[in-house]
Amino acid sequence: MDLLQLTLRQGSVYYMQDRRLTSAEPHFFIVVNRLPLRDRVVLLAVSTSQVENLKRMRRSTPPECVVELAPADYPEFTTPSAVDCNFLFEMTLAELRERQMTKQARGLRDLPKPALQALIRGVLASPLVKQAHKDLVLVRR
Is this structure's pTM higher than 0.85? Predict the structure, then answer.
């Protein structure tokens, strides 16, 4: 059994770079699907310290789709941040495992339950997230 199988769950947080982002800096990625090991795909929401820019960019979506988090909400954050629940990154288990093994992704402490619940509400409220992804966030099997 590998480290990923022991630690990957809804609320797991990884600090890593991703070429799909406009910034080359590493970001915090939060696992939002309920059973990522069973789903064989990992759905990740990403945080940004550019809170006002994100709020301005997403002003036409429901307000709960942008979740603001302070360092008091999640101690790994050093500055106020926000998570855009309107856009989820997809990653295969193999890709995340490879990133972890090559030290390109660093696992951090899980997001606290109240913050995770806010992210789940944001994803479910988003008009931009596919229903298939919402189903993976909510599934309770």
Answer: yes
